[in-house]
Protein backbone atom coordinates (compact mmCIF):
# COMPACT_ATOMS: atom_id res chain seq x y z
CA UNK A 1 0.00 0.00 0.00
CA UNK A 2 1.43 3.35 -1.02
CA UNK A 3 -0.10 5.32 1.88
CA UNK A 4 2.03 6.34 4.82
CA UNK A 5 -1.00 7.27 6.96
CA UNK A 6 -4.72 6.57 7.17
CA UNK A 7 -6.24 10.03 7.68
CA UNK A 8 -9.18 10.24 5.28
CA UNK A 9 -11.10 7.92 2.98
CA UNK A 10 -10.49 10.51 0.26
CA UNK A 11 -6.78 9.64 0.41
CA UNK A 12 -7.57 6.09 -0.72
CA UNK A 13 -7.68 4.87 -4.28
CA UNK A 14 -10.16 2.14 -5.25
CA UNK A 15 -7.51 -0.61 -5.19
CA UNK A 16 -6.21 0.54 -1.78
CA UNK A 17 -9.70 0.43 -0.29
CA UNK A 18 -10.16 -3.12 -1.59
CA UNK A 19 -6.71 -4.11 -0.31
CA UNK A 20 -7.67 -2.91 3.18
CA UNK A 21 -10.97 -4.82 3.05
CA UNK A 22 -9.41 -8.00 1.66
CA UNK A 23 -6.66 -7.85 4.29
CA UNK A 24 -9.32 -7.36 6.98
CA UNK A 25 -11.00 -10.56 5.79
CA UNK A 26 -7.67 -12.39 6.12
CA UNK A 27 -7.31 -11.01 9.63
CA UNK A 28 -10.85 -12.06 10.50
CA UNK A 29 -10.08 -15.61 9.39
CA UNK A 30 -7.25 -15.82 11.94
CA UNK A 31 -9.58 -14.80 14.76
CA UNK A 32 -11.45 -18.10 14.66
CA UNK A 33 -8.28 -19.90 15.75
CA UNK A 34 -7.75 -20.97 19.35
CA UNK A 35 -4.72 -18.68 19.58
CA UNK A 36 -5.76 -15.37 18.08
CA UNK A 37 -2.44 -13.52 18.37
CA UNK A 38 -0.17 -13.11 15.37
CA UNK A 39 3.55 -12.28 15.77
CA UNK A 40 3.46 -9.72 12.94
CA UNK A 41 4.13 -6.52 14.92
CA UNK A 42 6.16 -7.99 17.77
CA UNK A 43 8.48 -5.31 19.13
CA UNK A 44 6.46 -2.42 17.69
CA UNK A 45 4.74 0.18 19.88
CA UNK A 46 1.37 1.73 19.01
CA UNK A 47 0.20 4.81 20.91
CA UNK A 48 -3.53 5.50 21.32
CA UNK A 49 -3.65 9.29 21.63
CA UNK A 50 -7.23 10.19 22.54
CA UNK A 51 -8.18 13.83 23.09
CA UNK A 52 -11.85 12.86 22.97
CA UNK A 53 -13.62 10.11 24.90
CA UNK A 54 -14.42 6.94 22.96
CA UNK A 55 -14.11 3.72 24.90
CA UNK A 56 -15.33 1.54 22.02
CA UNK A 57 -12.93 2.84 19.37
CA UNK A 58 -9.94 2.96 21.73
CA UNK A 59 -10.51 -0.62 22.92
CA UNK A 60 -10.97 -1.79 19.32
CA UNK A 61 -7.64 -0.26 18.24
CA UNK A 62 -5.96 -1.61 21.38
CA UNK A 63 -7.32 -5.11 20.72
CA UNK A 64 -6.21 -4.95 17.08
CA UNK A 65 -2.66 -3.93 18.00
CA UNK A 66 -2.36 -6.58 20.71
CA UNK A 67 -3.68 -9.30 18.37
CA UNK A 68 -0.73 -8.39 16.14
CA UNK A 69 1.61 -8.65 19.18
CA UNK A 70 2.36 -4.91 19.33
CA UNK A 71 2.84 -3.08 22.61
CA UNK A 72 0.15 -0.47 23.28
CA UNK A 73 0.34 2.80 25.21
CA UNK A 74 -2.98 4.48 25.97
CA UNK A 75 -2.47 8.23 26.26
CA UNK A 76 -5.49 10.19 27.47
CA UNK A 77 -5.51 13.98 27.15
CA UNK A 78 -7.36 14.25 30.44
CA UNK A 79 -4.99 14.17 33.38
CA UNK A 80 -1.95 14.52 31.14
CA UNK A 81 0.39 17.35 30.23
CA UNK A 82 -2.04 18.18 27.44
CA UNK A 83 -4.59 19.36 29.98
CA UNK A 84 -1.88 21.59 31.42
CA UNK A 85 -1.33 23.35 28.12
CA UNK A 86 1.16 21.16 26.29
CA UNK A 87 0.75 21.61 22.55
CA UNK A 88 0.04 18.95 19.95
CA UNK A 89 3.53 19.61 18.58
CA UNK A 90 5.21 18.96 21.94
CA UNK A 91 3.22 15.77 22.35
CA UNK A 92 4.25 14.58 18.88
CA UNK A 93 7.92 15.23 19.64
CA UNK A 94 7.59 13.36 22.92
CA UNK A 95 6.02 10.32 21.24
CA UNK A 96 8.78 10.21 18.63
CA UNK A 97 11.44 10.48 21.34
CA UNK A 98 9.80 7.65 23.29
CA UNK A 99 10.23 5.32 20.33
CA UNK A 100 6.61 4.96 19.25
CA UNK A 101 6.10 3.27 15.88
CA UNK A 102 2.57 4.50 15.08
CA UNK A 103 0.01 6.88 16.55
CA UNK A 104 -3.75 6.39 16.62
CA UNK A 105 -5.31 9.79 17.25
CA UNK A 106 -8.83 10.92 18.07
CA UNK A 107 -9.48 14.65 18.37
CA UNK A 108 -12.48 16.95 18.60
CA UNK A 109 -10.99 19.34 16.02
CA UNK A 110 -11.40 18.58 12.32
CA UNK A 111 -8.00 18.32 10.66
CA UNK A 112 -6.04 17.46 13.82
CA UNK A 113 -4.97 14.04 12.51
CA UNK A 114 -3.80 15.56 9.21
CA UNK A 115 -1.79 18.19 11.07
CA UNK A 116 -0.17 15.59 13.31
CA UNK A 117 0.79 13.53 10.26
CA UNK A 118 2.00 16.28 7.93
CA UNK A 119 3.36 19.14 10.07
CA UNK A 120 6.84 17.62 10.10
CA UNK A 121 6.91 17.12 13.87
CA UNK A 122 7.41 13.36 13.70
CA UNK A 123 7.95 10.61 11.15
CA UNK A 124 5.39 8.06 12.32
CA UNK A 125 2.35 6.57 10.61
CA UNK A 126 -0.84 8.25 11.88
CA UNK A 127 -4.21 6.51 11.95
CA UNK A 128 -7.21 8.80 12.31
CA UNK A 129 -9.67 7.44 14.89
CA UNK A 130 -12.03 10.37 14.28
CA UNK A 131 -11.39 14.10 13.97
CA UNK A 132 -14.21 16.51 14.75
CA UNK A 133 -17.00 16.23 12.17
CA UNK A 134 -14.49 15.46 9.41
CA UNK A 135 -13.47 11.81 8.97
CA UNK A 136 -13.54 8.40 10.67
CA UNK A 137 -11.93 6.12 8.05
CA UNK A 138 -11.77 2.85 9.97
CA UNK A 139 -15.47 3.14 10.87
CA UNK A 140 -16.34 3.46 7.17
CA UNK A 141 -14.08 0.50 6.37
CA UNK A 142 -15.71 -1.73 8.99
CA UNK A 143 -19.14 -0.67 7.71
CA UNK A 144 -18.10 -1.52 4.14
CA UNK A 145 -16.70 -4.86 5.31
CA UNK A 146 -20.00 -5.68 7.02
CA UNK A 147 -22.05 -4.65 4.00
CA UNK A 148 -19.81 -6.65 1.62
CA UNK A 149 -20.49 -9.79 3.64
CA UNK A 150 -24.26 -9.40 3.35
CA UNK A 151 -24.69 -7.83 -0.08
CA UNK A 152 -26.36 -10.21 -2.55
CA UNK A 153 -26.29 -12.96 0.05
CA UNK A 154 -29.38 -15.14 0.51
CA UNK A 155 -30.98 -13.59 3.64
CA UNK A 156 -32.53 -16.96 4.55
CA UNK A 157 -29.14 -18.68 4.66
CA UNK A 158 -27.24 -18.68 7.98
CA UNK A 159 -23.92 -19.24 6.21
CA UNK A 160 -21.62 -16.36 5.31
CA UNK A 161 -19.62 -17.50 2.29
CA UNK A 162 -15.97 -16.41 1.94
CA UNK A 163 -15.66 -13.35 -0.28
CA UNK A 164 -13.67 -13.41 -3.48
CA UNK A 165 -10.78 -10.91 -3.16
CA UNK A 166 -11.55 -7.65 -4.91
CA UNK A 167 -15.32 -7.84 -4.36
CA UNK A 168 -16.73 -4.33 -4.40
CA UNK A 169 -20.21 -2.90 -3.73
CA UNK A 170 -21.25 -2.11 -7.30
CA UNK A 171 -25.03 -1.61 -7.37
CA UNK A 172 -25.60 -1.71 -3.60
CA UNK A 173 -28.12 0.79 -2.24
CA UNK A 174 -27.51 2.26 1.22
CA UNK A 175 -29.72 4.68 3.15
CA UNK A 176 -27.97 6.66 5.92
CA UNK A 177 -30.37 8.37 8.32
CA UNK A 178 -30.15 11.05 10.97
CA UNK A 179 -27.64 13.53 12.33
CA UNK A 180 -25.52 13.98 9.21
CA UNK A 181 -24.48 17.48 10.28
CA UNK A 182 -22.35 16.29 13.20
CA UNK A 183 -21.37 12.92 11.71
CA UNK A 184 -17.86 12.08 10.53
CA UNK A 185 -19.25 8.55 10.04
CA UNK A 186 -21.68 9.79 7.37
CA UNK A 187 -18.96 11.70 5.52
CA UNK A 188 -16.54 8.79 5.55
CA UNK A 189 -19.20 6.30 4.47
CA UNK A 190 -20.40 8.43 1.55
CA UNK A 191 -16.78 8.69 0.37
CA UNK A 192 -16.00 4.97 0.71
CA UNK A 193 -19.28 3.37 -0.33
CA UNK A 194 -19.50 5.46 -3.50
CA UNK A 195 -15.82 4.72 -4.25
CA UNK A 196 -16.76 1.02 -4.14
CA UNK A 197 -19.74 1.50 -6.46
CA UNK A 198 -22.66 1.83 -4.05
CA UNK A 199 -25.48 4.36 -4.31
CA UNK A 200 -25.97 6.29 -1.07
CA UNK A 201 -29.02 8.29 0.02
CA UNK A 202 -28.82 10.57 3.06
CA UNK A 203 -32.06 11.17 4.96
CA UNK A 204 -32.35 13.92 7.57
CA UNK A 205 -34.29 17.04 8.47
CA UNK A 206 -32.84 20.16 6.78
CA UNK A 207 -31.49 21.34 10.15
CA UNK A 208 -29.26 18.25 10.39
CA UNK A 209 -27.67 18.51 6.95
CA UNK A 210 -24.40 20.43 6.48
CA UNK A 211 -23.90 23.39 4.19
CA UNK A 212 -22.62 22.16 0.83
CA UNK A 213 -24.40 18.80 0.96
CA UNK A 214 -25.31 19.24 -2.71
CA UNK A 215 -21.63 18.74 -3.51
CA UNK A 216 -21.52 15.27 -1.92
CA UNK A 217 -21.59 12.21 -4.18
CA UNK A 218 -24.98 11.03 -2.92
CA UNK A 219 -28.72 11.65 -3.04
CA UNK A 220 -30.59 13.53 -0.31
CA UNK A 221 -34.13 12.78 0.84
CA UNK A 222 -36.13 14.42 3.62
CA UNK A 223 -38.72 11.61 3.78
CA UNK A 224 -37.54 8.41 5.46
CA UNK A 225 -40.52 6.34 4.33
CA UNK A 226 -39.91 7.36 0.73
CA UNK A 227 -36.21 6.43 0.97
CA UNK A 228 -36.97 3.02 2.54
CA UNK A 229 -39.50 2.24 -0.20
CA UNK A 230 -36.54 1.83 -2.57
CA UNK A 231 -35.72 -1.44 -0.74
CA UNK A 232 -32.11 -0.62 0.14
CA UNK A 233 -29.55 -3.30 0.92
CA UNK A 234 -28.72 -1.54 4.18
CA UNK A 235 -30.14 1.21 6.36
CA UNK A 236 -27.65 2.88 8.66
CA UNK A 237 -29.10 4.82 11.59
CA UNK A 238 -26.76 7.53 12.84
CA UNK A 239 -26.50 8.40 16.51
CA UNK A 240 -28.19 11.68 17.38
CA UNK A 241 -25.24 13.57 18.89
CA UNK A 242 -27.06 15.49 21.57
CA UNK A 243 -23.81 16.59 23.23
CA UNK A 244 -22.76 18.48 20.08
CA UNK A 245 -26.26 19.91 19.70
CA UNK A 246 -26.28 21.18 23.27
CA UNK A 247 -22.92 22.87 22.70
CA UNK A 248 -24.38 24.56 19.63
CA UNK A 249 -27.44 25.79 21.53
CA UNK A 250 -29.89 23.07 20.49
CA UNK A 251 -32.98 23.66 18.38
CA UNK A 252 -32.20 21.08 15.68
CA UNK A 253 -35.57 19.34 16.02
CA UNK A 254 -38.75 20.10 18.04
CA UNK A 255 -38.63 17.13 20.44
CA UNK A 256 -37.21 13.60 20.72
CA UNK A 257 -40.69 12.18 20.16
CA UNK A 258 -41.20 14.11 16.94
CA UNK A 259 -37.73 13.19 15.70
CA UNK A 260 -38.41 9.50 16.33
CA UNK A 261 -41.75 9.73 14.55
CA UNK A 262 -40.26 11.32 11.45
CA UNK A 263 -36.72 9.91 11.29
CA UNK A 264 -36.53 6.97 13.69
CA UNK A 265 -36.47 3.33 12.65
CA UNK A 266 -39.56 2.50 14.68
CA UNK A 267 -41.31 -0.88 14.77
CA UNK A 268 -43.63 -0.07 11.86
CA UNK A 269 -40.82 1.01 9.55
CA UNK A 270 -38.66 -1.90 10.62
CA UNK A 271 -41.38 -4.45 9.89
CA UNK A 272 -41.85 -3.01 6.38
CA UNK A 273 -38.18 -3.35 5.42
CA UNK A 274 -37.32 -5.66 2.55
CA UNK A 275 -36.09 -9.08 3.63
CA UNK A 276 -32.59 -8.36 2.29
CA UNK A 277 -32.18 -5.07 4.20
CA UNK A 278 -29.70 -5.13 7.08
CA UNK A 279 -29.80 -2.59 9.91
CA UNK A 280 -26.53 -0.85 10.81
CA UNK A 281 -25.54 1.63 13.53
CA UNK A 282 -22.07 3.00 14.41
CA UNK A 283 -22.97 2.97 18.12
CA UNK A 284 -23.61 3.76 20.82
CA UNK A 285 -27.34 3.59 20.12
CA UNK A 286 -29.99 5.93 21.50
CA UNK A 287 -32.82 3.40 21.76
CA UNK A 288 -36.20 4.98 21.31
CA UNK A 289 -34.72 8.00 19.52
CA UNK A 290 -33.05 7.02 16.24
CA UNK A 291 -33.79 3.29 16.56
CA UNK A 292 -36.41 1.17 18.27
CA UNK A 293 -35.57 -1.77 20.52
CA UNK A 294 -37.27 -4.12 18.05
CA UNK A 295 -34.94 -3.04 15.26
CA UNK A 296 -31.82 -2.90 17.43
CA UNK A 297 -32.33 -6.39 18.87
CA UNK A 298 -33.48 -8.16 15.71
CA UNK A 299 -31.39 -10.73 13.80
CA UNK A 300 -31.42 -8.21 10.93
CA UNK A 301 -29.31 -5.80 13.00
CA UNK A 302 -25.58 -6.30 12.40
CA UNK A 303 -24.31 -3.90 15.07
CA UNK A 304 -22.36 -6.59 16.99
CA UNK A 305 -20.89 -7.83 13.71
CA UNK A 306 -19.76 -4.28 12.92
CA UNK A 307 -17.85 -4.18 16.23
CA UNK A 308 -16.15 -7.50 15.48
CA UNK A 309 -15.27 -6.39 11.96
CA UNK A 310 -13.83 -3.20 13.44
CA UNK A 311 -11.04 -5.18 15.10
CA UNK A 312 -10.23 -6.94 11.82
CA UNK A 313 -10.19 -3.66 9.86
CA UNK A 314 -7.90 -1.99 12.41
CA UNK A 315 -5.61 -5.02 12.38
CA UNK A 316 -5.45 -4.68 8.59
CA UNK A 317 -4.67 -0.96 8.75
CA UNK A 318 -1.90 -1.44 11.33
CA UNK A 319 -0.45 -4.36 9.38
CA UNK A 320 -0.40 -2.51 6.06
CA UNK A 321 1.17 0.59 7.61
CA UNK A 322 3.67 -1.08 9.94
CA UNK A 323 4.60 -4.55 8.78
CA UNK A 324 7.44 -4.50 6.18
CA UNK A 325 5.67 -7.09 4.01
CA UNK A 326 2.39 -5.19 4.33
CA UNK A 327 3.94 -1.85 3.48
CA UNK A 328 5.58 -3.21 0.35
CA UNK A 329 2.31 -3.30 -1.63
CA UNK A 330 2.30 -0.94 -4.60
TrEMBL record:
It comes from the Bacteria. Residues 5-148 form the Aspartate/ornithine carbamoyltransferase carbamoyl-P binding domain. Pathway: Pyrimidine metabolism; UMP biosynthesis via de novo pathway; (S)-dihydroorotate from bicarbonate: step 2/3. It catalyses: carbamoyl phosphate + L-aspartate = N-carbamoyl-L-aspartate + phosphate + H(+). Carbamoyl phosphate binds at residues 56-57, 106, 136, 139, 283-284. SUPFAM superfamilies: Aspartate/ornithine carbamoyltransferase. InterPro entries: Asp/Orn_carbamoyltranf_P-bd, Asp/Orn_carbamoylTrfase, Asp/Orn_carbamoylTrfase_sf, Asp_carbamoyltransf, Asp_carbamoyltransf_Asp/Orn-bd. Its EC number is 2.1.3.2. One of its GO terms (cellular component) is cytosol. GO terms for biological process: 'de novo' pyrimidine nucleobase biosynthetic process; 'de novo' UMP biosynthetic process; amino acid metabolic process. One of its GO terms (molecular function) is aspartate carbamoyltransferase activity. Residues 171-321 form the Aspartate/ornithine carbamoyltransferase Asp/Orn-binding domain. Keywords: Pyrimidine biosynthesis, Transferase. Belongs to the aspartate/ornithine carbamoyltransferase superfamily. ATCase family. HAMAP family: Asp_carb_tr. Heterododecamer (2C3:3R2) of six catalytic PyrB chains organized as two trimers (C3), and six regulatory PyrI chains organized as three dimers (R2). Catalyzes the condensation of carbamoyl phosphate and aspartate to form carbamoyl aspartate and inorganic phosphate, the committed step in the de novo pyrimidine nucleotide biosynthesis pathway. This is Aspartate carbamoyltransferase. It comes from Schaalia cardiffensis F0333. The gene is pyrB.
Amino acid sequence: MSLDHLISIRDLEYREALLLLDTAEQMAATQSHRVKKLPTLHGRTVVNLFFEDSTRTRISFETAAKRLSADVINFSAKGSSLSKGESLKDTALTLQAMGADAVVVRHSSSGAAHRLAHAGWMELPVLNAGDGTHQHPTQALLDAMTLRRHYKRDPSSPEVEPLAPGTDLEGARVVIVGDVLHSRVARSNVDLLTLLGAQVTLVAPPTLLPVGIEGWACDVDYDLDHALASEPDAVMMLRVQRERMSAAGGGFFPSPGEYHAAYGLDRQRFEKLAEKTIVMHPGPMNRGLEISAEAADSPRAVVVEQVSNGVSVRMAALYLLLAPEGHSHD
